From TrEMBL:
Alphabetized Pfam families for the sequence: GMC_oxred_C, GMC_oxred_N
Any one GO molecular function term: oxidoreductase activity, acting on CH-OH group of donors
SUPFAM superfamilies xrefs: FAD/NAD(P)-binding domain (SSF51905)
Family: Belongs to the GMC oxidoreductase family.
Domain annotation Glucose-methanol-choline oxidoreductase N-terminal: ranges: 214-302
Protein name: GMC family oxidoreductase
Length: 584
C-alpha cells in the first residue's frame, strides 16, 4: 500500500499498523477503505484477499479490550427500555461467565476492537424466513428489494465462514436430524418449529467464532489493517456526489487521512448512522440524508422472558425442546429447537415475527455443568463438583449415550427452564438515532438513541406466550407460568431489553425517501460510499443478525469485485489510443 506524509512525501509499504506508531499527518491511498474491523468488515476483507485491489481495514480499537476506547461507545438514551415501578427490569438473558453483559447500558454493548461484536457473542445463528422478505400489508415499509432466493448462495457462504451446518431453520430440518423429535401434535397454523445453530471455531471447538482470529489468518499482500484509528469524518467532493477521503484520529491525538474512491462503512447499526450524520461539511444534514432518513427506523430485538417451568415440569419440556444433531461435512452440528408464531397467525392478527427459545438454569450440583468446570479448570469448589459428578453416574452415562449415539442435547439438573423471546419490530420513523450537543474525546457528537417499542411487538410477544400455554395444555405438556403482565393482559407492565442487535438505521431500498442505500448497498447519490452490516436490513426479522449481515457483506464484496473490474476495463480502454499514439 502506498503511504506518504503530507509534508515530507515519505513513502513506505504497510501491512498491519497501529496509528499510534505512525508519523503525524500520514496519508494512505488504498483502493478500498473499510471502516470497522468487526464481522462485516473482516468478511469483506477476506473476500477481497488476493485480488488486485489494495484494501485497508480501519479499526477504532486494538486487539484487546481498552476502557478508553470503549468509552467512545457512550450514548444518550432517551427512549426505551424503561421500566415501570411495578415491574422487574429485564436483562439480556446471559448466564454464567457472560452474566455481566446484562448490566451494560442499552445500545452500549458494542466492542471497539478487532473482531468487533464477536468478542461477546455466543455464536447463535439463524437465517431470516421467507416471510421476513415479503411485503406485508399490516407492516408499513415491509418487504426487501431483493428476494430470499437471491441471497441463499451468500447465506451458504456465510455459513461456511461460521462453520455452520445446513442453513435450514424450520421443519424442513427434521429430515436431516440424526434422531428427530417426536411430533407433538402442535397446531402448525398457530405455532411452528424454529431452530438456531451456534457458530464455533474449529480449534478450539467449544470457542464461539472470533473474527479477530479470522483477521489474523488473512495473509494476502493486498489486505492491510490499521488499528487505534477512529474515523471522524467521511469527505466527499464539492457537489457531494463522490466519496474522496477519510479523516482519522488516534487515541494519542495524532491525525491521519485515507484517500480512497471506494469506502465501505462497517461500524454497526449505531455508528454507521452517527458517522454519516456527523460528516456534514458539504451536506449540512449529513451524508445520504437528503430526505432525513439516516438514523430513522432504528430496530433491535426486544427480549423478555416469556414463560417458565420448574420442578418436574422441566424435564418433561426439555425432552422436546433441546439440541438436535445433524451429521454434515464429517462433523455433527447441533441445532436448538424453539417455537415461532406461524405466518398464518401473523397475517390473521397483524402481528410481527417472533420466536421463543429454551434456556435452562442449571443447579449447582448439575453433573454436566460441574464436569465442564472441572475440565476447564474453572471450578471454585473442586470437591463439590467431583461429588456432583460421582453421585450422578446414571445421568452422565445417559448423557453420553444421548450425545454420542442419538446426537441429542445433554440432560441437565436444572432449577428452571424458561422460554425467552426475541421479536421483530415494526418500522417506526420516530425510533431513531440523532446527534447530541455532547462531544466525545475527538470532538464528535454523541448519538442520541430514541428506541421505541410499539404495541404491535408487545401484542405479538403476548400472543406467542398465550399460544404456547394453550397448546402445551392441549397436547398434555405442562402448562407454563406466565409473567404477570401477560396473565393480567396489562401491556404497561411489559419489560424488554435490547439485545445489542441495532438495525435498519441505513436501510436498503429503491426509494431514497424511505431508504439510505440502494440494492448494491451504495448510499443513494454518493458514488463509492457503501454501507455493510445490520444497519442496511430493510426489516429486522427476529433472528440473530450475524449470519444475515455476513451474507449481505459477502454479496457486497462480489459487487465490489465487479465494480473494480469494470473500472479497470474502462481505464485500459481509455488508455488504448495513447498507447497507439506512442507506438507510432
Amino acid at each position: 500500500m502506498l503511504v506518504k506524509m503530507r509534508k515530507s512525501g515519505w513513502k513506505t509499504t504497510m501491512m498491519n499498523h497501529d496509528l499510534r506508531s505512525m508519523p503525524e499527518a500520514i496519508e494512505m491511498h488504498p483502493d478500498i477503505a473499510i471502516i470497522g474491523g468487526g464481522p462485516a468488515g473482516i468478511a469483506i476483507a477476506r473476500e477481497l484477499a488476493g485480488t488486485q485491489m489494495r484494501v485497508l481495514v480501519i479499526e477504532s480499537g486494538g486487539s484487546d479490550y481498552e476502557a478508553e476506547i470503549q468509552a467512545l461507545n457512550s450514548v444518550e438514551s432517551i427512549g426505551q427500555p424503561f421500566v415501570s415501578t411495578a415491574a422487574t427490569p429485564e436483562g439480556r438473558g446471559y448466564t454464567g461467565a457472560l452474566a455481566w453483559l446484562n448490566d451494560i447500558p442499552a445500545f452500549e454493548l458494542r466492542n471497539r476492537m478487532l473482531g468487533g461484536s464477536s468478542h461477546t457473542w455466543i455464536g447463535k445463528c439463524a437465517a431470516f424466513a421467507e416471510i421476513d422478505f415479503l411485503s406485508r400489508p399490516w407492516l408499513p415499509l415491509s418487504g426487501w428489494p431483493i428476494e430470499r432466493s437471491q441471497l441463499l448462495p451468500a447465506i451458504d457462504r456465510a455459513g461456511k465462514l461460521l462453520n455452520l451446518g445446513p442453513n435450514l431453520y424450520d421443519e424442513s430440518l427434521f429430515t436431516l436430524l440424526h434422531s428427530p423429535p417426536e411430533d407433538l401434535g402442535l397446531n402448525k397454523r398457530l405455532l411452528q418449529p424454529f431452530f438456531w445453530q451456534f457458530s464455533h471455531m474449529r480449534h478450539p471447538r467449544a470457542e464461539p467464532t472470533r473474527f479477530s482470529r479470522l483477521a489474523r489468518d488473512i495473509t494476502a499482500g493486498n489486505i492491510d489493517f490499521l488499528t487505534h484509528a477512529t474515523v471522524t469524518r467521511i469527505n466527499v467532493d464539492g457537489e457531494g456526489r463522490t466519496v474522496t477521503s477519510l479523516e482519522l484520529k488516534g487515541p494519542d491525538g495524532r491525525s491521519a487521512s485515507v484517500h480512497a474512491n471506494t469506502v465501505v462503512l462497517c461500524g454497526g447499526g449505531i455508528e454507521n448512522a452517527r458517522l454519516l450524520l456527523a460528516s456534514n461539511s458539504v451536506q449540512p444534514v449529513g451524508l445520504g440524508n437528503g430526505h432525513d432518513i439516516v438514523g430513522r427506523y432504528l430496530c433491535d430485538h426486544p427480549r423478555t422472558s416469556l414463560c417458565r417451568f420448574t420442578g418436574r415440569d422441566i424435564d418433561a419440556v426439555a425432552k422436546h425442546f433441546n439440541f438436535y444433531g445433524v451429521n454434515h461435512g464429517g462433523r455433527t452440528h447441533f441445532y436448538l429447537r424453539g417455537l415461532s408464531l406461524s405466518p398464518e397467525i401473523q397475517a390473521w392478527e397483524s402481528l410481527t415475527n417472533c420466536a421463543a427459545y429454551p434456556v435452562q438454569i442449571h443447579a449447582q450440583d448439575d453433573p454436566w455443568a460441574a464436569l465442564k468446570r472441572l475440565t476447564k479448570g474453572a471450578s471454585k469448589t473442586v470437591k463439590e463438583d467431583l461429588l456432583a459428578v460421582a453421585k450422578s453416574t446414571d445421568m452422565v452415562t445417559s448423557g453420553l449415550y444421548d450425545r454420542i449415539i442419538r446426537k441429542r442435547g445433554l440432560p441437565h439438573r436444572s432449577i428452571e427452564l424458561r422460554f425467552d423471546v426475541m421479536a421483530e419490530q415494526q418500522l417506526d420513523s420516530e425510533s431513531r438515532v440523532t446527534l447530541t450537543d455532547r462531544r466525545d474525546r475527538f470532538g464528535q457528537p454523541l448519538p442520541r438513541i430514541n428506541w421505541k417499542i410499539g404495541r404491535r411487538e408487545t401484542d405479538s410477544v403476548k400472543r406467542l406466550a398465550l399460544t404456547i400455554a394453550d397448546e402445551f395444555a392441549r397436547i398434555g405438556l405442562p402448562k407454563p407460568q406466565l409473567p404477570d403482565w401477560i396473565a393480567a393482559d396489562d401491556n404497561t407492565g411489559a419489560t424488554f431489553m435490547d439485545m445489542a442487535h441495532p438495525s435498519c438505521t441505513t436501510r436498503m431500498g429503491t426509494d431514497p425517501r424511505t431508504s439510505v442505500v440502494d440494492t448494491n448497498a451504495m448510499v443513494h447519490g454518493i458514488d463509492g460510499l457503501f454501507v455493510a452490516g445490520s444497519s442496511v436490513f430493510p426489516t429486522p426479522g427476529h433472528a440473530n443478525p450475524t449470519l444475515m449481515l455476513l451474507a449481505l457483506s459477502i454479496r457486497l464484496a462480489d459487487h465490489l469485485k465487479q465494480r473494480h473490474a469494470t473500472a479497470r476495463s474502462h481505464t485500459l480502454q481509455a488508455s488504448e489510443p495513447d498507447l497507439l499514439l506512442h507506438r507510432g
